[in-house]
C-alpha cells in the first residue's frame, strides 16, 4: 500500500510537521510517565484505526521495556488486571477525549476526577495535550493512508 500523500516531500507539510514534531518532543520530555504516554498513544491510535501509529507506539513502548502482555491488553484495559489505577484513569480519559462525538458531553466529571487523583496539574496538562496530539497524528495518517509495519523504534525522535 502506498500513502496518498508524501508529507516529507511537501514544503507545506514540512513547515507544519517541524513544529508538530517539536510538540511531540516536548510531550516526551514532560513529567507524564513514559509508560503512560505510550499506553495512551496506543489506545487513541487503536480507537482511530491508525495502523502507522499503532505500529510506532507498540514498537517504541517495547523498546523502553513495556511487556507484550500489557501492549496486547490495551484494547481491553477495563477487563485487564495488568494496569495501575493511574494508567486506567489515563486510558479512560484518553477514550472519552477521543470519542467526543460518541459521548455527546465530552469528558465526564467523574472521569476527570479519577484522573486528578493520580496526576498533578502539569501531568494532566501533558496528558490532555498528548490525547489531542495523538488524535491529530492519527487523522493525518488515516486520511493519507500511511502504511504500517516498517517503523523502527525511535525513528522520529
Concise account of the structure shown:
This protein is 66% helix and 0% strand. It has 157 residues and is mainly α.
Structure description:
By secondary structure, the protein is mostly helical. The protein has a single domain (12-144), classed as Up-down Bundle (AhpD-like). 66% of the residues lie in helices and 0% in strands. The protein contains 8 helices and no strands. Residues 16-95 form the Carboxymuconolactone decarboxylase-like domain. InterPro entries: AhpD-like, AhpD_core, CMD-like.
The CATH architecture would be Up-down Bundle
User: Average pLDDT value?
Assistant: 94
CATH fold field value? AhpD-like
Major sheet: none
Gyration radius, rounded: 15 Å
Q: What would you give as the CATH superfamily?
A: AhpD-like
Pattern of helices and strands = HHHHHHHH
**First-last Cα distance:** 25 Å
Counted by DSSP, the helix tally is: 8
Q: Could you estimate the helical fraction of the residues in percent?
A: 55-70%
Spans where pLDDT lies below 50 across 5 or more residues: none
Pfam families: CMD
Organism: Streptomyces nigrescens
Protein name: Carboxymuconolactone decarboxylase family protein
Domain Carboxymuconolactone decarboxylase-like: 16-95
